[in-house]
Amino acid sequence: MLNFKKIIAEAISKVTNIKCEELETYIEIPKEANNGDYAFPCFRLAKELRKAPQMIAVEIKEKIEITEPITKIDVVGGYLNFFINKETLAKEVLEEVSTGFGKSEIGKGKNIVIDYSSPNIAKPFHIGHLRSTVIGGALYNIYKQLGYNVTGINHLGDYGTQFGKLIEGYKLWGNEYDIEKDPIEELTKIYIRINEACKQDEQILENCRNNFKKLEDGDPYCLEIWERFKDLSLKEFQKVYDLLGSKFDSWNGEAFYSDKMPEVIQILEKTGKLVESEGAKIIDLEDKGISTPCIIEKSNGSTTYATRDLAAILYRARTYDFDKALYLTSYEQTLHFKQVFEVAKLLGIDEKYTNGLEHVSFGMVLLPTGKMSTRGGNVIKLNDLLNEAISRAKQIIEQKNPDLENKDEIAKKVGIGAVIFNDLSNGRVKDEIFDWDTILNFQGETGPYIQYTYVRTQSVINKAGSIPSFENVEINQLLDEYSIRILKLIYSFEDVLKQVTDNNEPSILSRYLIDLAKAYSNFYNENKIISDDKNVQNARVYLTYAVGEVLKLGANLLGIEMPDKM
Question: In CATH, which superfamily holds the domain spanning 111-366?
Answer without folding.
Answer: HUPs (3.40.50.620)
